[in-house]
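Sample entry (179 residues):
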Amino acid sequence: ETGAGEGTTLDVTTITHKAGLNGIGLIGYNDLTGQMTSYREVMAKQGQAEVTTDRSLITYNAHGFLKTYHDVITDTATDVTKAIDWTADFADGYNDEGQLTHYEETKLEQAAGYQITVTTTRSGITYNNEGQMTGYAEDVQKDDSVLAQSSSDVHTIRTATTYTTLGLLKYYADEITYL
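Predicted structure, serialized as tokens:
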């Protein structure tokens, strides 16, 4: 892995294992379409907590593009469970080139005395001729159901995104409104 400093090399071993949701079988596939429907991923990084992701309810639209999934993420360091529901099941979810243009992700983090829901909706995603993302509108709503008064809404418009000749992100402008 490469560290924060340019050219810095970290000596870290990461092991990632994918299997069926029962941990011993194969990754789940739809028998008719051959598309993946579920899996379990266990990632162990030297010196860090082991993270397990169970992904299920993976569905696709008529063009074969990802439509929905549900993740449950746990780790060995905390008792926090993260559940993520992702969808691009919108009429404008993908453009004619098959590029993602609209999605919503709802993440619920919970543990004893702690429950936060964050919903992110990104729409109007645009791309340049090289297929690089150039802009979008994003709404993020955060609610703490333990502290009912604790919620926040943020609206972001990203424009003017440019890239270097190597395809690296060079510039973007964000207009952020706190609601």
